[in-house]
Amino acid sequence: MEMDAERAVCSRAGCRAAAKWRVDWRNPRIHAADRVKTWVACDEHRGFLRDYLAARDFPVSVHPLDAAATETTK
Q1: Is residue 6 classed exposed, middle or buried when 0-12, 13-18 and 19+ CB atoms within 10 A define those classes?
Q2: Along the chain (74 residues), what's the average pLDDT of each consecutive run of 10 residues?
Q3: d(CA 56, CA 68)
Q4: Which string of DSSP letters, residue by residue, matches 30-66?
Q5: pLDDT at 66
Q6: Taking Cα atoms as reference points, which of 7, 34, 44, 37 lies closest to residue 22?
């Protein structure tokens, strides 16, 4: 997924900080394995967004916004 890292704003409600992280996730109850949604996060909200999704048993991975996918967190 290509994204303009310089203009991305955190997906956390009410946050207007610059995003530095890509949070990729899917809801396995309604999405096929190849359907991945992406939120972006600032440093402060990276953990919150990841934990929010993981608490719902959604497959989730977090990567630097401007780098290739390398880190998986579930």
Answers
A1: exposed
A2: 71 96 96 94 98 97 76 42
A3: 25
A4: TS-TT--EEEEE-TTTHHHHHHHHHTTT--EEEEETT
A5: 85
A6: 37
For the record, the structure tokens of 18 come out as: 């610059």
| Look-up of token digits 């967190």 | 73
Record the pTM. Answer: 0.79
Half-sphere exposure of 69 (CA within 13 A, CB side): 13
Task: State the residue for tokens 């993981």.
Answer: 54
**For residue 21, which of 60, 54, 58, 57 has the smallest C-alpha distance?**
60
What's the Rg (C-alpha) of the chain? 12
**Confidence (pLDDT) at 71:** 41
Using the structure block, give the residue that is written with the tokens 């992406």.
Answer: 38
- By three-state DSSP, how is residue 53 classified? helix
How far apart CA 66 and CA 22 sit, in angstroms, is 8
Q: Are 36 and 24 in contact (CB under 8 A)?
A: yes
